[in-house]
Design goal:
The complex is a heterodimer of chains A (about 425) and B (about 400).
Chain A lengths: L12 E10 L2 E2 L1 H9 L6 E2 L12 E2 L12 H20 L10 E4 L7 H9 L8 H7 L6 H5 L4 H10 L6 E3 L5 H14 L5 E8 L4 H9 L29 E9 H6 L6 E10 L12 H14 L8 E3 L6 H15 L8 E2 L2 H4 L6 H15 L1 E2 L22 E2 L4 E7 L4 E8 L4
Parallel strand pairs in A: 5-6, 5-7, 10-11, 10-14
Antiparallel strand pairs in A: 1-2, 1-8, 1-9, 3-4, 7-8, 9-15, 12-13, 14-15
Helix pairs in contact in A: 2-6, 7-13, 10-11
Chain B lengths: L5 E10 L2 E2 L1 H8 L18 E2 L13 H5 L3 H17 L5 H4 L3 E6 L6 H11 L5 H12 L4 H5 L3 H10 L4 E6 L1 H17 L5 E8 L4 H8 L25 E2 L1 E9 H6 L6 E9 L8 H11 L7 E5 L5 H12 L4 E5 L1 H4 L6 H15 L19 E7 L5 E8 L2
Parallel strand pairs in B: 3-7, 4-5, 4-6, 10-11, 10-12
Antiparallel strand pairs in B: 1-2, 1-8, 1-9, 6-8, 9-13, 12-13
Helix pairs in contact in B: 3-8, 5-6, 12-13
The chains are: A alpha/beta (about 425), B alpha/beta (about 400).
Organism (chain A): Aquamicrobium soli
Pfam family, one (chain A): Ketoacyl-synt_C
GO molecular function (chain A): 3-oxoacyl-[acyl-carrier-protein] synthase activity
Chain lengths: ~425, ~400
Amino acid sequence: MATMKDHMGRPVVAVTGIGIVTSLGIGKADNWAALTSGTSGIRSITRFPVEQLSTRISGMVDFLPSSSKGASALTYELAEKAAHEAVAESGFGLEDFGGPLFLASPPMELDWHDRFALYNSGEGDGEPDRLLEVARGLNSFDLFETAQFGSIADRLADRFGTRGLPITLSTACASGATAIQLGVEAIRRGEADRALSIGADGSATAEALIRFSLLSALSTSNDNPAKASKPFSKDRDGFVLAEGSAALVLESLESAKARGAAILGILSGCGEKADDFHRTRSKPDASPAIAAVKAALADAGLAEDRIEYINAHGTSTPENDKMEHLALSTVFGEALRSIPVSSNKSMIGHTLSAAGAIEAAFSLMTMREGVLPPTINYDNPDPAIPLDVVPNTSRAAQVETVLSNSFGFGGQNTCLVMAREPV
Amino acid sequence: MNAHDVVITGIGLVSSLGEGPDVHWQKLTDPGLRPVLDAERFAPYTVHPLPEIDWNQQIAKRGDQRQMETWQRLGTYAAGLALDDAGIKGNDALCSTMDLVVAAGGGERDIAVDTDILAASADRSDRDVLLNEKLTTELRPTLFLAQLSNLLAGNISIVHKVTGSSRTFMGEEGAGVSALETAAARIGAGQSTHMLVGGAFQTEHVDMLLGYELGGYLHRGPWQSVWNRQGGQGGGVVTGSGGAFLVLEQREHAQKRGGRIYATLDAVLSARARRTKGELEGSIAGLFDKADLPEGDLLAISGASGAHKATAAEQAALAAHPQIAARGFSTLTGHMKEAQFPFAVALAALAVHHKAGYPAFDPAERNFAGTPQQVLATAVGYHHFEGLALVRAAD
């Protein structure tokens, strides 16, 4: 009989539903099959022209009806697809979920195609005021809602019958993990017995690509897209911009057991620590990342030696991977040599606001399926950061506990500890 | 009174009226106060512009100031005011363990670049290629960071060293409601001991106005107070630049360090009415019911935006509680979007702290003469989401 309270007397939080969409496909089954066979979802960009762009590859989700309809529409569809799969698996009603919604999504801006259309349907001088003039004659909320930050969550709340005011959040690349943390905290406080946490990002527009490019953050290995994302390799040259989504149904273990739901895993700990060093760079001593990992372990009530696999942030930028290694080797010491550490981003790229949720979902599947997804493109190991990255091919392994890292631009770091069973 | 109560110990405010809790209290209790308006720059829209601000007072490094556009500077500045006010600024032990929640929208795009691209688009059919040409050559690399929603929080961490944790909520007024609601819940449940919570809004930018006007929400024509815009030209919202940050603490934590307590945050409640189904008035009424309102005269700081439907629904819900004397502060500050609810809660806390109400901000508002023990704060979103808070005198 599993205990329903954790080491701090709080309700144990289980996962009873998982949904995933990435460039590898729709749904857990397709994604898991591709991920564990070392398949890359990174391709040459076809959604928009790539003239003048120094990066011409991405992990975009190009197979959905909204893929060409702008960031807002695609982010909604990604979130809806993942949430549908997760809620259906949990057994809760698809239209009356009845728990709070936490959505990690990118900040919203009016799409350039809409901006062009607005501008060119107006008259008068070429001043920005023309947009306002056209806007006030629109008489429809369609465009308006694409530029409201709360609208995607509002629609999802309608779609799934979630409870109360949905929270939309951004902690940059840690957003997906923060959405999960908010759900865990709400259940631990006893505010809800279930929560729907989603990370979704369909914002790989030309402007987004250019912005990251100008910050020198992106890989320019355009000639062989599948080889571009190479975390922990010596020749890693930046991350690959990508899209995707994942949803978790979080539920108190007590509630899940009471209704006989399948327990897919346990969310045992969440830890965060902000960095005050720089807007895009992490503190060189990795102290914020170290503190976030330690906080997650402490929250889970686990010593370092209990972590059996690490789902790395592993962006494939020179700086992140070095910093992440420093953080992990500081926390885990010599023992790190025997802990497998792999990066899903080697195959799906960096899904930004969705990454923390997608990687948590894959972490849970890793434990459930007994297979460690590989870090592909590990052909040229960086000797400065020696790690067992599960190179190139997946590996069968029974894993009871996982640490998943998310470190964001702007200094927001969140780590999650997950377990197969209550510990 | 309980050791785990949530108390307000720091207030940082900026609006067209000035900066700081004292200036706002003095001005807003002056019955003859007139709003600061700019009806020219964005005509036919009126805005409440930022006051003169010496950024150096809260953002010491010029390098940091240069890395931010006005919205981020404004938020970082207001956050610094709140930390100063709470006596926490520069206290490494307290700042490095302090949890931060920011209610954020987006930052300012580069209007010159956008205007140039739009102008060129009139003669081009390959607009996607045009975008690539212009954006790759004209965008300032660091501008992206100055626009990113979560970078207001990032800058607060960098400038003020608040690093316990950092979360950014998005979603117009609702983001401010959720930020305070979850912050209070975390403190109440022992998940945090002290937090910095708030937001900022910089309206003096065409995109910020566009964010409302795509939905037809802005008021046009001669300025009117927030309660008197029904039937006027446009949608009823007059915006203002400003920011509001609060330091929230567990009572025990505040008392141990000798912090000054403005007010106890009794309750923060939120809701999402399905407005197209006509649920808004009932939703607001439901919040009033849940809030367990005290008997007798009650002062309410209303964040009403002026948006026709939302404000009418709030007025109707208020009318069912004739003991409530509402003060629509948007009349004097303009609507500050994500910062609206934290601003409302700050004004409510100032009233219980000073043991006095505010005079009517508009002839339509009824008199409130008593000493407020509890004060209500509301934010009914112009388009979606609604929330309220109830604060109580500290002693």
